[in-house]
Amino acid sequence: MATMYPRASSTGATPSEEMNGTGNLMDFLDEPFPDVGTYEDFHTIDWLREKSRDTDRHRKITTKSKESYWELIKSLLDAWSGWVVMLLIGMLTGTLAGVIDLAVDWMTDLKEGVCLSALYYSREQCCWTSNETTFDDRDKCPQWQKWAELMTGHSEGAGAYVLNYFLYVLWALLFSFLAVSLVRVFAPYACGSGIPEIKTILSGFIIRGYLGKWTLLIKTVTLVLAVSSGLSLGKEGPLVHVACCCGNLFCSLFSKYSKNEGKRREVLSAAAAAGVSVAFGAPIGGVLFSLEEVSYYFPLKTLWRSFFAALVAAFTLRAINPFGNSRLVLFYVEYHTPWYMAELVPFILLGVFGGLWGALFIRGNIAWCRRRKTTLLGKYPVLEVIVITGITAVLAFPNPYTRRSTSELISELFNDCGALESSQLCDYVNNPNMSRPVDDIPDRPAGPGVYSALWQLALALIFKIVITIFTFGMKIPSGLFIPSMAVGAIAGRIVGIAVEQMAYHHHDWIIFKNWCRPGADCVTPGLYAMVGAAACLGGVTRMTVSLVVIMFELTGGLEYIVPLMAAAVTSKWVADAFGKEGIYESHIQLNGYPYLDVRDEFTHRTLATDVMRPRRSEPPLAVLTQDSTTVEDVETLIKDTDYNGFPVVVSRESERLIGFVQRRELTVAIKTARQKQDGVVSSSVVYFTEDNPQVAEACDPQPLKLRRILNLSPFTVTDHTPMETVVDIFRKLGLRQCLVTRSGRLLGIITKKDVLRHMAQMMNQDPESIMFN
């Protein structure tokens, strides 16, 4: 028998074990199974197990590091690998963001005209390099020509306007068609914002391919096309997806992260921070966004690494300098007057508007997306994108505030009116006797340009509110930050001008008397636009702390934190009155992802026995016994059921719980045993016991011992445990399933899906909407 089992003695087996043919039972298990520990697509990871595996790996490395210098060097490299990954993520994310910014600027301007001196220059770059641009006509330069002027030689007149209009719509349709076609053919996961899915992935869900190389490439290209088409969407949300794709890419280079789904999610949390850092030029806001909005598990170590990744990403973007202003921020502002206590009233009203807009947008958008999923509309994504783009372009062109890119619009709305501004919004009636410093211009009566701009802004506001509801969620990359900020900035600027004119014409009113004297610069309309933008973004996403930090990093307006905080908190309160979920949580619910939100409260008085499976009307629980189940029984059970794992009991009569075994590991173990271990056949008995089984006779089939894959400490609760406690355990420990026992006897099982369905049922929602495990 010793020759039959040549490796038995090397494992320390006794001669009697060799004679019984059991000395090699663990031989094929000495090395890790291929694929054991990995998870199937659309399943949830086991956080406790991943944490335990990482602790074991770390302990092994620490022990080995004391054996030799080479092992010590390897342990140091392992310790530094996290920082190296962060460096690589920051550099690649910053580079991609810079390229996207430059490409969007050029392609957005391409819809209106072209630079003759260099085709790859945007309008602004073209006029920078021109020596013939005058101060009065600084928006025009001979090198930049609109399409009508280039084709017909005429820049004015009805014919030129119609031709420019037609080509604007044509370019928009071409860009959006290319975007939706590339997404549809090469990377279906590259559509949408990506943040709902990132939140779900960070909570422990597996979506294979969502952070893959193809998704990264196609999302980067189609994001440029989608934003350039002029649709009411932004690039900020998708940049978080792009950054997480970069994080996933670099995780595959280090086994520490590629083989542990829990550690991988720590890297992805930091990558999300880097994405927001380059999206807004807000490194600290990015870290807080990852902590407050997207991350599920965020230890202190991840906080430091997120900070480092955001720093490197911001530094890389600053080195590329896509905005050409030597600043990292997108909408730098410089206001010359402080805000006054009385202004908190309009700021809070803007917060109320932001909350109402957020509630309206979420309800409207979710209703439209549900219609898209349940009707024929969902079968024609290309047609939907083309139609929405056509409507957007046709309605946007006549209004100068909707024709330009949304980022340019927000930048103009945030601006303070200085002496050098040529915008319609700054067309005030000047006092010819005024002799004041350029930076301190007093409040003045509005001129015809301001009133004209107000009408155009009011129309732009209605247009943006309606079209954004239908745009977000189409099968192209689409962010929500910039459109939401645009809605708020337009509303804020209108309110700001109204307050400014009231203060000018009625400075003797009691509300203005104490702080606004005639001839003083009292009200800054740009500040109201900034507060409105924060309010609307907060109403849609329900962000608070990270939102305020992002806004002051975005604009450089550090002294205006209190107005921003007042608006953000008010918008959250108002929006929460209509529904607790933000737009991302609503889309997670719509898609049926198993996301257990930490912020949800469970106050119902139900017990574990009310939720566990099997119910009275269902067949008994599928279990394995410790020493009486054959390989054939196990394979039949795996074939006939789709459970993620099976409890192991002493016997079917006693049902005393021993442990839990994962379906995937059981499948791989049996397959590997059949290939590597002689004598394992369908009638072989599977053992989960500690002692090696005895083979009664030589003719009996070789037994198969699988104790190594058995989880001996599965999480258990009693049948009278309150569901409030069970929900808390699932949230805080990231469990996949929990076994229900009474006095050590197995009664049933509760999975994450069961918990989510029970919570939905308690809130009078459809429990069948939770589709995944």
Automatic annotation (TrEMBL):
<feature type="domain" description="CBS">
    <location>
        <begin position="612"/>
        <end position="676"/>
    </location>
</feature>
<dbReference type="GO" id="GO:0005524">
    <property type="term" value="F:ATP binding"/>
</dbReference>
<comment type="similarity">
    <text>Belongs to the chloride channel (TC 2.A.49) family.</text>
</comment>
<keyword id="KW-0129">CBS domain</keyword>
<dbReference type="GO" id="GO:0015297">
    <property type="term" value="F:antiporter activity"/>
</dbReference>
<dbReference type="Pfam" id="PF00571">
    <property type="entry name" value="CBS"/>
</dbReference>
<dbReference type="InterPro" id="IPR000644">
    <property type="entry name" value="CBS_dom"/>
</dbReference>
<feature type="domain" description="CBS">
    <location>
        <begin position="710"/>
        <end position="768"/>
    </location>
</feature>
<dbReference type="InterPro" id="IPR046342">
    <property type="entry name" value="CBS_dom_sf"/>
</dbReference>
<keyword id="KW-0967">Endosome</keyword>
<keyword id="KW-0067">ATP-binding</keyword>
<dbReference type="GO" id="GO:0005886">
    <property type="term" value="C:plasma membrane"/>
</dbReference>
<keyword id="KW-0547">Nucleotide-binding</keyword>
<dbReference type="InterPro" id="IPR001807">
    <property type="entry name" value="ClC"/>
</dbReference>
<keyword id="KW-1133">Transmembrane helix</keyword>
<dbReference type="GO" id="GO:0010008">
    <property type="term" value="C:endosome membrane"/>
</dbReference>
<dbReference type="GO" id="GO:0005794">
    <property type="term" value="C:Golgi apparatus"/>
</dbReference>
<keyword id="KW-0050">Antiport</keyword>
<feature type="compositionally biased region" description="Polar residues">
    <location>
        <begin position="8"/>
        <end position="21"/>
    </location>
</feature>
<dbReference type="InterPro" id="IPR002246">
    <property type="entry name" value="Cl_channel-4"/>
</dbReference>
<feature type="transmembrane region" description="Helical">
    <location>
        <begin position="453"/>
        <end position="473"/>
    </location>
</feature>
<feature type="transmembrane region" description="Helical">
    <location>
        <begin position="340"/>
        <end position="362"/>
    </location>
</feature>
<feature type="transmembrane region" description="Helical">
    <location>
        <begin position="165"/>
        <end position="187"/>
    </location>
</feature>
<dbReference type="InterPro" id="IPR014743">
    <property type="entry name" value="Cl-channel_core"/>
</dbReference>
<dbReference type="GO" id="GO:0005769">
    <property type="term" value="C:early endosome"/>
</dbReference>
<protein>
    <recommendedName>
        <fullName>Chloride channel protein</fullName>
    </recommendedName>
</protein>
<dbReference type="GO" id="GO:0008021">
    <property type="term" value="C:synaptic vesicle"/>
</dbReference>
<keyword id="KW-0812">Transmembrane</keyword>
<keyword id="KW-0472">Membrane</keyword>
<feature type="region of interest" description="Disordered">
    <location>
        <begin position="1"/>
        <end position="21"/>
    </location>
</feature>
<keyword id="KW-0868">Chloride</keyword>
<feature type="transmembrane region" description="Helical">
    <location>
        <begin position="80"/>
        <end position="104"/>
    </location>
</feature>
<dbReference type="GO" id="GO:0005247">
    <property type="term" value="F:voltage-gated chloride channel activity"/>
</dbReference>
<feature type="transmembrane region" description="Helical">
    <location>
        <begin position="527"/>
        <end position="552"/>
    </location>
</feature>
<feature type="transmembrane region" description="Helical">
    <location>
        <begin position="303"/>
        <end position="320"/>
    </location>
</feature>
<keyword id="KW-0677">Repeat</keyword>
<keyword id="KW-0406">Ion transport</keyword>
<feature type="transmembrane region" description="Helical">
    <location>
        <begin position="267"/>
        <end position="291"/>
    </location>
</feature>
<keyword id="KW-0813">Transport</keyword>
<feature type="transmembrane region" description="Helical">
    <location>
        <begin position="382"/>
        <end position="401"/>
    </location>
</feature>
<dbReference type="Pfam" id="PF00654">
    <property type="entry name" value="Voltage_CLC"/>
</dbReference>
<feature type="transmembrane region" description="Helical">
    <location>
        <begin position="480"/>
        <end position="499"/>
    </location>
</feature>
